[in-house]
DNA sequence: CTAGGGTTAG
């Protein structure tokens, strides 16, 4: 005889009592209350009824105010839980720090032959996704087909999503082509999958062919472009999205703000901030964080502080964004003050906070402070320094001229040095003219990072600086033979809301004639101020005249000149460069700031330079 | 029940 699973509530307690308890459960808001209700249900026997028991479980297993451990103890005492209860537990674990428990529960569920329903697999697959369990995903995929859920759209969409998220775009595509039902969610998962693999063309293909696009389709494309280093395309999509009449939400704004930050287009970023204010969009912790990041990366620290002040929830990431903001501006002392304020406010720094603060020390030459912080990481905060932190320290010591100490740190660190570590040391050798060590490191770097054009250029220019033209040419030949190309220098300047892009030696700008003409005048004027082109370590073995032509067509010079002729006198010129600014350009821009009475704000690969009255905030330390 | 968002060394 089959056991009685659940006793009807009416036999155990009065109807009204049960209804009252259920009502309480419905309104329950925290675990304290829940415990009391649980006790009541135990006493009255209400817990033996499937529906109240399910409600109790669902509350405990919910991620917000529940307690998964409590849910588990309740669950374990339920005699033959039904499918809903199993699903509830699997869902709980899929959102928790121990998603593997979801898989174990599923295993038990199979063992006990509990039937599945349409809610079982989405949760289970989410668990697989968060633990990157690819083998298990395939096994579950097989079960899905066997148990007849192969056409259930939530289930197949979840499968598509796991495959896409894990980078297995082949399996995702196979399934996508197989299923007989697709909706916007299915198409969106494919977009996500292609962008995660860096296949933007395929993502566009999907995007262009899907029958209906919603905000998630657009946002996935935008964030895909940002991830692929195509912020201009991201902004393009953003404008198209608005033309399509899509109502913006926080997530779409976050991705777009990242594009603004990468491009350094303050106007566009400000426009979005104004939109947020106008439409009274709530600045949640993530949106606040990227807003701050956008302002600091576009050179407006004051506005970043303003956003910070107005935020209600100031978590560690928001503080870290501010500290990193000060770092990129070279304002190390203030970064330290914010680091202290943060801890006074009771917020503990995390690994990234340390990356930020150590970078800040590095750009400001605060060697002593950085050493203390680095040492306190493990001793006070309990973090093992990661390779990024070692990278910061090598950079800091190297910049400060403490090459020996930097080398010792690399030798003694417990992790294997990567390209970034050697890169930091090489940079230091370059700055401080340690050509011998530089050549050694340069060779190591090319071995570690043979596909990176910048490494060859760096080594070649060290040879050039030593007057070893043959060696320099040899390195350049080697680069050519490897089929590696140099990343061209690129500067972006935003004028009247349009981003103008200049490449080194590029003649494609519609106003290039005017720009060339204007620059000739500028050079003449600067020569009167004593300017002499610095050609010393230019790696090309050319006549000085030709070298000068090459150096005078650097992208940042084109951009600054364009800025001078296309903006009103006295207006700040804002430029973003993809590589480190060269020494000659740095000198020229300093002089321009004085002679033409312009403030010029330039972000290069590592930091901001604010040129004013013939000086730069980097103090020639970059 | 399924799809999009965070600060990060050179």
Automatic annotation (TrEMBL):
GO biological process: RNA modification
GO molecular function, one term: zinc ion binding
Residue ranges of domain DYW in the record: 530-622
The UniProt record lists the keyword Repeat: yes
PPR repeat extents: 82-116, 183-217, 218-248, 284-318, 319-349
Alphabetized UniProt keyword annotations: Repeat
Top-level taxon: Eukaryota
Family annotation (Pfam families): DYW_deaminase, E_motif, Eplus_motif, PPR, PPR_2
InterPro entries according to UniProt: DYW_dom, E2_motif, E_motif, PPR_At4g14850-like_plant, PPR_rpt, TPR-like_helical_dom_sf
NCBIfam families: PPR (TIGR00756)
Family under the similarity heading: Belongs to the PPR family. PCMP-H subfamily.
Name of the featured protein: DYW domain-containing protein
């Amino acid at each position: 005889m089959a056991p009685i699973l659940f006793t009807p509530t009416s036999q155990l307690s009065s109807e009204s009592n049960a209804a009252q308890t259920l009502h309480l459960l419905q309104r329950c808001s925290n675990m304290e209350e829940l415990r009391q209700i649980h006790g009541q249900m135990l006493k009255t026997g209400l817990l033996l009824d499937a529906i109240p028991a399910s409600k109790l479980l669902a509350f405990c297993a919910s991620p917000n105010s529940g307690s998964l451990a409590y849910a588990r103890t309740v669950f374990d005492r339920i005699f033959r839980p039904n499918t809903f209860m199993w699903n509830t537990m699997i869902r709980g674990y899929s959102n928790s720090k121990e998603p593997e428990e979801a898989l174990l529960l599923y295993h038990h569920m199979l063992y006990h032959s509990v039937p599945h329903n349409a809610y079982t697999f989405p949760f289970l697959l989410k668990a697989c996704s968060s633990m990157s369990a690819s083998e298990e995903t395939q096994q579950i995929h097989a079960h899905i087909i066997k148990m007849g859920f192969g056409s259930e759209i939530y289930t197949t969409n979840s499968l598509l999503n796991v495959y896409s998220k894990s980078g297995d775009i082949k399996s995702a595509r196979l399934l996508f082509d197989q299923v007989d039902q697709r909706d916007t969610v299915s198409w969106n998962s494919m977009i996500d999958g292609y962008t995660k693999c860096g296949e933007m063309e395929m993502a566009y293909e999907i995007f262009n062919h899907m029958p209906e696009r919603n905000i998630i389709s657009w946002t996935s494309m935008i964030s895909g472009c940002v991830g692929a280093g195509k912020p201009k395309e991201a902004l393009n999509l953003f404008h198209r999205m608005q033309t399509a009449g899509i109502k913006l939400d926080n997530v779409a704004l976050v991705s777009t703000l990242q594009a603004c930050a990468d491009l350094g287009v303050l106007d566009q970023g400000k426009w979005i901030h104004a939109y947020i204010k106008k439409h009274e969009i709530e600045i949640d912790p993530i949106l606040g964080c990227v807003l701050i990041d956008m302002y600091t990366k576009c050179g407006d620290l004051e506005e970043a502080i303003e956003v910070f002040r107005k935020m209600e929830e100031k978590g560690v990431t928001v503080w870290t964004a501010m500290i990193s903001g000060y770092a990129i501006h070279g304002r190390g002392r203030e970064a330290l003050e914010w680091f202290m304020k943060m801890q006074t406010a009771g917020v503990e720094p995390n690994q990234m906070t340390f990356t930020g603060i150590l970078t800040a020390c590095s750009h400001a030459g605060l060697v002593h402070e950085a050493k203390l912080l680095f040492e306190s990481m493990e001793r006070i905060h309990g973090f093992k320094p990661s390779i990024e932190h070692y990278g910061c320290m090598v950079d800091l010591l190297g910049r400060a001229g403490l090459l020996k100490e930097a080398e010792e740190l690399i030798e003694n660190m417990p992790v294997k040095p990567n390209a970034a570590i050697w890169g930091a040391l090489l940079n230091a050798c370059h700055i401080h003219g340690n050509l011998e060590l530089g050549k050694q490191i340069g060779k190591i770097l090319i071995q570690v990072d043979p596909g990176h054009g910048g490494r060859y250029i760096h080594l070649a220019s060290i040879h050039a600086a030593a007057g070893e033209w043959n060696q320099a040419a040899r390195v350049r030949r080697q680069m050519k033979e490897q089929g590696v190309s140099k990343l061209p220098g690129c500067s972006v300047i935003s004028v009247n809301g349009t981003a103008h892009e200049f490449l080194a030696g590029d003649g494609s700008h519609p106003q290039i004639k005017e720009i060339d003409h204007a620059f000739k005048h500028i050079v003449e004027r600067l020569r009167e101020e004593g300017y002499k082109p610095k050609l010393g370590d230019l790696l090309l073995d050319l006549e000085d005249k030709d070298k000068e032509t090459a150096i005078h067509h650097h992208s940042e010079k084109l951009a600054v000149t364009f800025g001078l002729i296309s903006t009103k006198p006295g207006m700040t010129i804002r430029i973003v460069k993809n590589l480190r600014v060269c020494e000659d350009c740095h000198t020229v821009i300093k002089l321009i700031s004085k002679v033409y009475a312009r403030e010029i704000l330039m972000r290069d690969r590592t930091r901001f330079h604010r040129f004013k009255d013939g000086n730069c905030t980097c103090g020639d330390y970059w």
